[in-house]
Amino acid sequence: MSVGERYGTHPEQIAALLDAAGEAAMVLSFREDRAFAAMSVGRFRAVRSTRLDWSGAEEIARSESFDADGLRTLLASCAGANELAVVFWSNLATPSVALEAALVAEHAEAVLECSPESWIYLADGEVLIEFQDGEGFTAGRVPH
To answer: Which residue has the higher pLDDT, 46 or 49?
Structure first.
């Protein structure tokens, strides 16, 4: 089975987020996921299998907290009004989701419960937030 065939095969992992956000959340197709990934997480090298190498990127903020309040604080400082956010998970079997950053903040608990590792791409500002459970959040500008 190819990566494209495995993509999105476990939407139950994000069911709580989709229920909370309703029709304002859009589950991305594999093609959409790869397009947004190319503009964001794909511009970083990997350290180990899921951690990003932030060297060479402009780091905006780092937080040791790894809870919903920490995510809300980062989003308040990094996201513009009505900014599009794309949430990627560490497993491609869980489909990526696009929604407004304000909704990510509103439903931060549901976002963080979906996966112990995730990345939130703020499209307008070209900012990426990395979440690693136990290690906190890192936010920075996506390198070009």
So the answer is: 46
What DSSP string runs through 76-127? HHHPPTT-EEEEEESSTTSPPEEEEHHHHHHTHHHHHHH-SEEEEEETTTTE
3-state helix, strand, coil in the chain (%, to 5): 40, 30, 35
> Which residues are 85's β-sheet partners?
99, 122
pTM of full prediction above 0.85: yes
Burial status of residue 89 (CB atoms within 10 A of its CB: 0-12, 13-18, 19 or more): buried
Which candidate, 140, 142, 1, places its Cα nearest to that of 59? 140
CA distances to 29, 63, 75 from 13, in Å: 16, 25, 22
